[in-house]
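User: Run a structure prediction on this.
Assistant: Running it now.
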Amino acid sequence: MIQISQIAAANYHYKRYSMEYFLDSVARLGFHNIELWASGPHFHLDYFTYQDIKKLNKKVKERGLKTICLTPEQYVYPVSISHPDPEYRKRSVEFFCRHIEAASLLECDKVLVTTGIAYLDVDETEMWKWCRESLGEICKTAEKEGIYLPMEAFTSFTTQVFNRVEHISKMIKEVGSPYLKGLADTDVMETTGKDTIHDFIRELGNNLMHVHFVDGNPGGHLVPGEGKLAMVEVLKELNSIDYKGYLGLELLDRRYVMNPEKALKDSLTWFEKHLE
């Protein structure tokens, strides 16, 4: 059965507070694991040396915490491994490889990856090929560093090429790296409206490595219980396969920004009520 220790706090909604405040907050609430959003103002890699990353890791460990997934910002930034421009793709691959190396310094064994935004007026077959080739290059660094890459499908509003679990499964097979895995986001799948958590479990099997466990209307990435998604059913489905991975709290709604600790505390209250 899923345990409280499998819940990973994240710093997305702590962006109006310092990194130290975030770490102190999650330690105070009793979390053991964090999913680290790699973006400004907390952890924009362009402004961090290797020594800075090691210092950050020390701060994490001093509070009894562990970074279980590094999630580079790759939605609003100019990062797309399926972009038509080869130079754009090359720089996007380098972006991920740098974060894989940073994850290693953070003693973190997972870096979240996505395909980037797909153009509607570009051939989908070509776009898929560019994505596959880029992931193949990224996986070389991942294999060298021993870092797994849970891959997330975006909503259909972002990409028509990679928005279903079957796309994740197909890409894993085509790339052929044991380090490329799958990620299920409860709010994203509901917003897209094409798959359920059952589909992710059936299609990915042991390749389901990470879950973003968030509520929605759909959309919003809310505290469990604050939206209309069937979060209890998702929990039951994950328990049915004895899921051993983490549930990341990717809380994004701006209602949480001014009082981020309350959102995490409310999330814990929900889990304490529904975990047996």
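Residues 124 and 161 are 6 Å apart (CA to CA).
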